[in-house]
């Protein structure tokens, strides 16, 4: 049976990111998650992770079309030109 929810460790493996990066995605609201149990363990639904991945693909495509550099905002990219 496939689990509906993933742990942060699962997310780090799927996205190939570090644990601090995964925590940051959750804490700044980029990746929807919930805490469960007395120890407040984080869980992320597979659907929410897939939505995040698709959103990042879309944002990356938009940035590439605009000619923006990685990590820059539209205002910074315009100023760099």
Automatic annotation (TrEMBL):
Matches recorded under Pfam families: HTH_17
Protein's UniProt name: Helix-turn-helix domain-containing protein
Location of region: Disordered: 61-81
InterPro entries reported in the protein's UniProt record: HTH_17, SinI_DNA-bd
Helix-turn-helix domain ranges (all copies): 5-55
Annotated source species: Cellulomonas alba
């Amino acid at each position: 049976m496939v689990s509906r929810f993933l742990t942060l460790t699962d997310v780090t493996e799927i996205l190939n990111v570090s644990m601090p990066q995964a925590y940051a995605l959750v804490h700044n609201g980029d990746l929807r998650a919930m805490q469960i149990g007395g120890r407040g363990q984080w869980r992320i639904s597979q659907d929410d992770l897939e939505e995040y991945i698709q959103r990042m693909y879309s944002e990356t495509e938009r940035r590439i079309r605009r000619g923006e550099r990685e990590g820059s905002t539209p205002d910074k990219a315009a100023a760099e030109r």
